[in-house]
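Progress report, Aim 2. The chain analyzed during this reporting quarter is listed below.
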Amino acid sequence: MSGQVFRKAWIAGVLKHFPGEPKAGYISPWEEMPAWEQEAAATVYEQVRGLLDVSSGSATKLNREQKGRFVSLCWIAQIYKHFGDPKPSYVADWADQPEWQRETNSDIFEAIESL
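Predicted structure tokens for the chain:
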């Protein structure tokens, strides 16, 4: 279920922020995602929840960019876990990510913190 929350927030963010028509894989439903991606989504969800828990909720005070950066770093770690030599675009630093992706990552954190 936690990974599905992440995925729903991702899809909502892509539909809101992506310029033009997103790739089908960006908005494919949970059931069509590869197992590694489902695992990664669940893990990042748990990492955000963990940050909120260990900070006694104070992580809600992070600004929007900080929230998105956290999601981004957690996701990049999952990419490295599942792919030995990923494409550079899969592990791009925050400043090198397109705006739609940064905004979507921030949306994901805010969706998780709202639960």
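Helices lie at 2-17, 35-54, 64-82, 99-113. The chain has a mean pLDDT of 97. These observations will guide the mutagenesis work planned for the next reporting period.
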